[in-house]
UniProtKB/TrEMBL annotation:
Name of the protein in question: N-acetyltransferase domain-containing protein
Gene3D superfamilies: 3.40.630.30
UniProtKB keywords: Transferase
Span of domain N-acetyltransferase: 73-198
Native organism taxonomy: Eukaryota, Fungi, Dikarya, Basidiomycota, Agaricomycotina
GO MF term list: acyltransferase activity, transferring groups other than amino-acyl groups
Claim: Transferase is one of the keywords in the record: yes
Length: 198
């Protein structure tokens, strides 16, 4: 059966969390770095199934979710609602003082002091996204198809561009984003790229 893309649902939460974990170390698996293996997903994937202004699509192989693209059409609203409804709940569950591994401590601290998008990013576009595909399905054109799906969705929401941040160690990701039409923009941080829709 061919791979397919569909809108994500709450039942996909565990799959998104797992994919985020196995791609969280600059595109490679961060599984050995975490005792609390759900933490990367709680920050970068799962909130997009729960909060206002968000959207999410998944790449499915038979019935297994093997990739996702998630984002918000309004980054500032997302940040505000997450600060009120998401980060505090999870920060309480993960005290940094009880963590052993450094990666867990880093995420636990992030839950208490989440990064805010630079003003230049939001000026370029209110929308942002995250995309991850498990390693065995990378390099086969599915990343491009997920980007196209997200762009088409954002157009229906009246948005004319989107940006994303990258792990600076992940040079392959940067090459991919350049191939599909992302580029640097005025005021962008060194590891952010954006795309204007035609």
């Amino acid at each position: 059966m061919a791979l397919t893309i569909r809108q994500a649902a709450l039942v996909d939460e565990a799959a998104l969390s797992h994919i985020c974990l196995v791609t969280a170390d600059a595109g490679k698996s961060a599984d050995p770095l975490h005792d609390h293996k759900e933490l990367p997903g709680l920050v970068y994937a799962v909130p997009y199934l729960h909060l206002p202004t968000t959207w999410a699509f998944v790449l499915v192989d038979n019935e297994n979710v093997v990739g996702y693209i998630v984002g918000s059409k309004d980054t500032r609203v997302f940040e505000q609602r997450a600060a009120e409804e998401w980060w505090p709940i999870h920060a309480e569950k993960y005290p940094p003082t009880e963590m052993v591994k450094e990666a867990d401590k880093r995420y636990a601290k992030l839950l208490r002091n989440m990064d805010i998008a630079p003003e230049a990013h939001v000026a370029f576009s209110p929308a942002h996204l995250h995309i991850n595909i498990v390693e065995e399905h990378q390099g086969k054109g599915w990343g491009r198809k997920l980007i196209e799906t997200a762009v088409n969705h954002l157009k229906t929401e009246g948005v004319d561009g989107v940006w994303l941040g990258m792990d600076p160690r992940n040079s392959e990701a940067r090459k991919f984003y350049q191939r599909v039409g992302f580029s640097t923009f005025e005021g962008a941080s060194p590891h952010a790229v954006g795309m204007r829709f035609k």
